[in-house]
Amino acid sequence: MGEPRGFLKSARQTNAYRQICERIKDYKEVFKLRTDKESEEQASRCMDCGTPFCHSACPIGNYIPEWNDFMFRAHWKEAIELLEATNNLPEVTGRVCPALCEFACVLGLNDDAVTIRENELSIVEYGFKNNLIKPFRVAKRTKKKVAVIGSGPAGLSCAAQLNRAGHSVVVFERDNLAGGILRYGIPDFKLEKNILDRRIDIWSREGVVFKTGIDVGKDYPAKKLIEEFDAVCLAGGSRVPRDLKIPGRELEGIHFAMEYLTQSNKRVSGEKIAKNALIDAAGKKVVVIGGGDTGADCVGTAHRQGASCVVQIEVMPQPDTCRNQDSPWPKYPLLLKTTSSHEEGGERHWAVLTRSFEGKTKILKKLSCIRVEFEKDPVKGCSSMKEISGSEFEIEADLAIIAVGFLYPQRSGLLEGLGVELDGRGNVGTDSNYMTSVKKVFCAGDMHRGQSLVVWAISEGRRAAYSIDKYLMGESNLASI
Q: Quick check: pTM over 0.85?
């Protein structure tokens, strides 16, 4: 530890945000990176704990105290090497990860936690700026062929790892460009797509082959996949959205969040959308149903499209602003989260149940809602929801966005063609080595574990790559996490 009293000398400093009046006019990143000197100072706050709980909280096991120390000493090259040893997409997690590690930071017990996520981002951006991140040279090829289906964080991480192990890797993506949810589900104001493109370009130069616009199971038969490749990794994500099956659902003006965000991202990239298929918030009263990160992304997108007003509602009660007895340190707490999108305007309401959609001439005009409360069973400990009599109210809406999560992966096509078994939740079942019920077919990411975080998808992709490499070669030198 280079500065034993660093956390006493320096206060926590995160990346500064661009002014709201400026950033809502475009889709560029909402924040500005700190200077290298500021980042080195922030790294000095890391205490190099005897037991660094940040390690165990991070799904990919980042070497956090070690690369913080390197960064503090301005040994950026060494910090980059350590960071990339555990994370294939630090420039993504440094932008969109909820930073599970920071909530387990020992300093957070009685002070502001270390800015681990911003430090991670500073390291990787320093690497790109100074040409320190270059294609990995694969010394020897194994002559084994692996197909990765899906180019989200799980598929990309799995492909990168297997390629570095010497296998010939082909990534299939049904959309026109690689990136999966990173490209089509996350708005540019959180993750500009040139950030993604530069990493995919590196992997392409390393030898990974990307085949886009191919819906495997439909355009490319499942049987052919099994015949042509020595191993297959399914990483298609959890794409079936959870719906609100309530009266009025058939009205025009109601859309799923991913449908809305995907189309917006395509428009930002310059892709033309047919007028009769356009989902645009311009001049409209927008209601976002769902209080999570995806809902917040819809709020920010609606602001940028020029919505006249934006309201976000959530059926669960408002979270606490600080830890309670149900989430003691170092557990990840369910706390009130105010994102950059919320800071830009709009209203937020909790403990609100949507009863029905109301319309006129088949077009959405308002939501019929009621307030709810949750009562905890003193014996079982679980909570049950109860409507509050007399609390009914309406919200005017021209556009409603349903952002209440996902159920399971799409079954028609590839999964049915392969005949893989599903688990009790409808996800692809695997053994402890990520292999499905079909020999040489593996699965990772949301398709395997259900809807989750980008950092968990990266972890799953890396773990699956280790298992695939071991299956093909009998042993593996890849990291098992």
A: yes
